[in-house]
Specification:
Blueprint: E1 14-17, E2 24-25, H1 27-33, H2 46-53, H3 60-69, E3 78-79, H4 83-93, E4 96-102, H5 117-126, E5 139-142, H6 145-154, E6 159-162, H7 165-168, E7 178-182, E8 195-196, H8 198-205
């Protein structure tokens, strides 16, 4: 289905965004961390690193990488292209923005059990997203995908954007919430999965 073929949701009042790899772009973070894992930083996308580190019978190094990515890596992470403009546009139009993230309170014990939520909140503050554009009480962290989908339903969000198809296709996904899969590749106009980047979403919302 073409994004342009979906009726513009002028009735949208509550927009939800995923955090990691949706609102937060970790491209520079992956390049920064890659040498620690003997990976050439010039080709160090998240997918490349995952293929390099994640073995069928052992994903220990991949988990160690993620523990670093979602803590130290936040120093290099940036808002996804067009995200800040989208959120500004929502505020100007009176649309409420919520963040719902599947992020446990701490990482694996074997990697130091580092706090994962506090650095994420600090990143949102450092980039002037919380509380200036998004109230702090509009940011939700959950321990599981099931709990994330439940939060999306309880918040009665009109639209939610997530990079993971398994979230959007969850069996308990609320029928009243229109889900978009985030993709920075701008494939929204010809994707059957309703993929969008933030500029395309802003246009669709009429911001």
């Amino acid at each position: 289905m073409k994004l342009s073929a979906i009726p513009r949701r002028l009735e949208v009042r509550r927009l939800g965004l995923d955090l990691d790899n949706t609102l937060i772009d970790y491209t520079a973070s992956c390049e920064f961390l890659a040498p620690n894992f003997d990976i050439n930083e010039s080709s160090a996308t998240r997918d490349v690193i995952r293929r390099h580190l994640r073995q069928p019978d052992n994903d220990e190094e991949w988990q160690r990488f993620q523990s670093l990515l979602y803590t130290d890596g936040l120093d290099s992470a940036l808002p996804a292209f067009g995200a800040v403009e989208l959120i500004h546009g929502c505020k100007n139009r009176g649309l409420e923005v919520f963040i719902v993230s599947h992020k446990t309170k701490s990482g694996p014990e074997r990697f130091g059990a580092r706090n994962l939520r506090a650095p994420a909140l600090q990143w949102l503050t450092n980039h002037n997203l919380v509380p200036s554009l998004i109230p702090k009480d509009h940011v939700f962290f959950t321990d599981s995908v099931d709990a994330k989908v439940e939060s999306i339903a309880n918040l009665r969000l009109d639209v939610f954007v997530d990079d993971l198809p398994e979230v959007l296709s969850h069996p308990k996904w609320p029928s009243s919430t229109l889900g978009f899969r985030f993709s920075s590749a701008s494939v929204g106009d010809d994707s059957p999965n309703r993929c969008v980047d933030f500029p395309a979403l802003s246009e669709w919302l009429g911001l």
